[in-house]
Amino acid sequence: xxxxxxxxxxxxxxxxxxxxxxxxxxxxxxxxxxxxxxxxxxxxxxxxxxxxxxxxxxxxxxxxxxxxxxxxxxxxxxxxxxxxxxxxxxxxxxxxxxxxxxxxxxxxxxxxxxxxxxxxxxxxxxxxxxxxxxxxxxxxxxxxxxxxxxxxxxxxxxxxxxxxxxxxxxxxxxxxxxxxxxxxxxxxxxxxxxxxxxxxxxxxxxxxxxxxxxxxxxxxxxxxxxxxxxxxxxxxxxxxxxxxxxxxxxxxxxxxxxxxxxxxxxxxxxxxxxxxxxxxxxxxxxxxxxxxxxxxxxxxxxxxxxxxxxxxxxxxxxxxxxxxxxxxxxxxxxxxxxxxxxxxxxxxxxxxxxxxxxxxxxxxxxxxxxxxxxxxxxxxxxxxxxxxxxxxxxxxxxxxxxxxxxxxxxxx
Length: 412
Known about the structure:
The chain is of the alpha+beta class. Among the domains are: about 125-200, Orthogonal Bundle (Helix Hairpins); about 320-390, Beta Barrel (conserved putative lor/sdh protein from methanococcus maripaludis s2 fold). The chain is about 30% helix and about 30% strand. The chain is built from 5 helices and 22 strands. The protein has helices at about 5, 20-65, 125-160, 165-200, 405, and strands at about 65, 70, 80-95, 100-105, 115, 120-125, 200-205, 210-215, 220, 235-250, 260-265, 275-280, 290-300, 310-315, 325, 330-335, 335-340, 350, 355-360, 360-365, 375, 390. A hairpin with a 2-residue loop joins β16 and β17 (about 335-340).
């Protein structure tokens, strides 16, 4: 057998053909990866732009001033004030002696109701009695002298026709008679004066009222006039009382003559008495800055006492349209008195106002504001109409999200 015939036969390996779909899948995967990459890039760019926009907006918002606002308060308007007052008798007379002497008797003690002309006390005045007796004697002497002068004058007039006396003698007699008659009138006037003083030996009540003080007793030496000493009696008309209060200057315009007031006293807790404003001093006391006002309260039942302390609640008259705002909200410049308000879109408007009353921390505004206005309580310096502001406490744009925020959502 030849060598060729002895050679081992070749083993043929089968050919495996690659499927066509493998290449197509690879191409699709490549396209998908490219699309994803494009989407990622687009999303990243868009997110960055949004973040930049938020950052810009947040930065701009931080530059807008933040202000506190308050609505004008109508309920806070002062409609009444409480003031301390002092009760005094409507009429009060301090009675002193008009003649000197001794107290012979007294007929009215403190707390005694008296009528006009009622006897309070009687004075024994021996000096006055002697003066009256002397005046009577002087008058009688003057009358006698006047009668003699008149008789002499009449006789002279009858002798004139016969020429027994001269005309000059007649004139002298006429003058003497006139002088004597004048002396009679003088002595009569002196006696009348003493008679009037004699009536003052009786001390009488000047009007209906109550004896609220007595400072004398039987046998006491009394000097005519006040003499710097206490009054013998004090008679007070307590059927109605005067109430005096000192009203702060800023409340005076709201209190008119005829205004009603409620009066209370410690001895009658829970009770109110009605008083009426009767008069005002129309002047401000420099030391206290107040105006004195007088009220009248009925006391026909005698429950209230003179000299007592009272609390007086005065109703204040004022326009119903007034509102109250904090005093710090007022702007005073070359344009006058103005108040800054905030509109619905956060823009500033400056409104000219008129002050009704200065209440200290608050101002009572008569004109220029509406109850729906939002007033800036403390306006920044240089604030101008149209300025953009942000109201404190309202929701504000948040800070933009950063990488650190994303990594640490619980921080900052």
